[in-house]
């Protein structure tokens, strides 16, 4: 494999990893919203004693949980076309390798920031739960 092909493969791999992580995060947020809506509809169906609607909502909840498994993603082809160069000079190949390295390092940096500063990406509910836990209290089940 030539140096240019290796550089492009490395860039493609890094773009794929970053795209997959972004899609997973977006899917998790969408699932959370969907489950909140379905649970609200479920409570309304229980109050109004609509058994058929309740059964359908329970099926929708199970379906929503299954759909958020490992996403199948592809790298944007327009982005890859924009990064291809006509001349495979050492300078251009080095530039592609630098972009791939930057993506890798940026992802590692973000993981470390999240690991050592967990409060940055935590929701308000999680912060309250952890604060209560720190002083020896447990939140009631209906708040969790």
UniProtKB/TrEMBL annotation:
Highest rank taxon of the organism: Eukaryota
Q: One biological-process term from Gene Ontology?
A: mitochondrial proton-transporting ATP synthase complex assembly
GO CC annotation terms, alphabetical = mitochondrial matrix
Q: What is this protein called?
A: ATP synthase assembly factor FMC1, mitochondrial
